Amino acid sequence: MSLGQNIENDLKMALKAREDTKVSTLRLLKSAIKNMxxxxxxxxxxxxxxxxxxxxxxxxxxxxxDAYQKASRKDLFIxxxxxxxxxxxxxxxxxxxxxxxxxLNTAFESGIDQFGPLMKEVIAKAQGQADxxxxxxxxxxxxxx
Length: 145
Fold this sequence. Notes:
Layout: H1 3-17, H2 20-40, H3 47-70, H4 74-88, H5 97-109, H6 115-126, H7 132-143
Helix pairs in contact: 1-2, 2-3, 2-4, 3-4, 5-6, 5-7, 6-7
């Protein structure tokens, strides 16, 4: 089953179970997916594009959580956290710090010793399964920046 079908089935199940938070989150996700499909002029997006949309939506939730936490709005923070938890289920498992270090060391040993190209190589090899902030921190440590 493709990721798009999985999202659609989960939305149907959430509607039947009357899970309001899940329904609203998945509807917003489907809307973002449809907008990207219109942008790309495609009827249906590939799983890689769907993952990109999910990551963008998750990033929005995380940014909102940070803002709500700073503003001491625990109620809104919890709502965003619940939505983020729903979205995370559709993303592949993230690589551990050790796995990222292995990729980083391999790229460094191949002769890449500048920040930009090294970041690009590690992110590409991680195939979206690594947090950019963690990669940035590890690259800076490796380069002594």
